[in-house]
Amino acid sequence: MKLTIHRGTNQIGGCITEIESSGYKIFIDFGEQLPGTEIKELNPIDGLTCGDISKSALFITHYHGDHIGKICDTVVDLPIYVGKTALKIFSCLESRLSYIPDPNESEKHKKIVERIKTINTFEQLQKIRIGEITVTPLLIDHSAFDAYMFIIDADNKRILHTGDFRGHGFRSKGLIPTLKSYAKNIDYIISEGSNIQRPNATIQTEQELQKDFELQFKNNKYNFVLVSSTNIDRIFALYHASKNAKRCFVCDSYQTSILKIVSENHKQFTKFYDIDFNQTRSPVGRFFDLKRQGQNPFSFDGKLKTYLEKYGFCMLIRSNDSFQPLITEYAKSIDSKVFYSLWNGYLDSKKTAFNESLYNFLKPYEIEYMHTSGHADLETLKTVFETVKPKGGIIPIHTEAPDKFQELFHEQTTIIPLHDRDVFDVK
Ligand SMILES: [Zn+2]
Ligand SMILES: [Zn+2]
Q1: Do the Cβ atoms of 154 and 167 come closer than 8 Å?
Q2: What is the 372 CA–ligand 2 centroid distance (Å)?
Q3: From CA 44, how far away is CA 38, in angstroms rounded?
């Protein structure tokens, strides 16, 4: 078995892993580099972007752009595998993006929508065989829904690829039991380390964040929350926080479709994902799907306006012009608050075009930062490594500080610092 990290040994985002055994190859993740990072041009990758693909396949850990964004750059017929609900959410997101006004961007997303039609799906623990290689997906918690770690078996060797994960989300309590049950006899862990440079950061749990939002919504009548439309657990937490604070919950039809996908497919497992989209009784704590008239900005009219102004609301927003007039109208009130619930790195206005437009969008308002990371803290990484006890060691990826692995975890296990494109012989 041979292992290559084509990109991602010393950067967050755009990681590509290849595992080869007896001529069969699986690739894990094929996404964009994060905006604002130094562009690293990829050489052609045999079995992924060129050459014979009859013995290879691409597995995607989750739908964040830095893991899935380049799926149109594979050889056309390469089989791709994505989690079942994750694919539905991704498809909904990409369909919306294919209507954005910039013709280059819209063309790119239209191509992704076409490619999605050919993608295969899996569910947790469903073993998939690519010739000599078996891949087993383990469901874990991340700021993307339906995200996975993979166990790769071939040549009597076992590798655990962590993807992006964390220990402080709503579904994180399953992490260690899952690893104890399924990640036995692991030889190597390929591990993300996004938060490895923040040794002292105590990370708030999603549960704690939900409580804080609930308090805020009780204290403020008109609440606007800027949040990623695919950060599903955060959004459901906002829904519950708003309901507990007896405020109405408002979002647009695109966001409603995303929430419906999750609710329909997962409410049988937990009440957390059970939203009554059509409730007709008291407007308190009620869900409102805000429809838009053509290209006009969003507005509250008639009965909806009366309800929302009487009971107060939590409304999900995105940083585009269609939300601006509504926020501006209510931001004048002392009962109003705008919350920023995204990574604070986007607030550095000089870094990327997206950051700049976000900065301009938020400039007129006073914003409250309320967010928690989608990635594991040091304690969680340590517990994972202690639980799995890889016989060979750990290969750091998805990190800006691979050296920190050596400094922090050398007593527990061997750290194998690879460079991009090194071919590592798994013995
Ligand atoms: Zn990532
Ligand atoms: Zn991610």
Answers
A1: no
A2: 13
A3: 19
What kind of fold does domain 206-369 have according to CATH? Rossmann fold (3.40.50)
For residue 183, the CA-to-ligand 1 centroid distance in Å is 22
Distance 142 CA to ligand 2 centre (A): 7
Compute the distance from residue 102 Cα to the ligand 2 centre, in Å.
25
CA of 61 from ligand 1 middle (Å) equals 9
Q: How far is the CA of 202 from the centre of ligand 1 (A)?
A: 20
Cα of 335 vs centre of ligand 2, distance in Å, is 34
What is the chain's pLDDT, residue by residue, as a tens digit (427 residues)?
A: 999 999 999 999 999 999 999 999 999 999 999 888 888 889 999 999 999 999 999 999 999 999 999 999 999 999 999 999 999 999 999 999 999 888 999 999 999 999 999 999 999 999 999 999 999 999 999 999 999 999 999 999 999 999 999 999 999 999 999 999 999 999 999 999 999 987 666 689 999 999 999 999 999 999 999 999 999 999 999 999 999 999 999 999 999 999 999 999 999 999 999 998 887 667 788 999 998 888 889 999 988 999 999 999 999 999 999 999 999 999 989 999 999 999 988 888 778 888 999 999 999 999 999 999 999 999 999 999 999 999 999 999 999 999 999 999 998 899 999 999 999 999 8
Residue 58 and residue 81: Cα distance in Å, rounded?
6
Quick one: which ligand is closest to 37's CA? 1
Give the architecture (CATH level 2) of 2-198+374-425. 4-Layer Sandwich (3.60)
Instruction: Tell me the CA distances in angstroms from 403 to 214, 241, 268, 384, 422, one per residue in order.
Output: 40, 40, 44, 19, 17
* Domain layout of the chain by residue ranges: 2-198+374-425, 206-369
> Measured between alpha carbons, how far is 376 from 304 in angstroms, rounded to an integer?
41
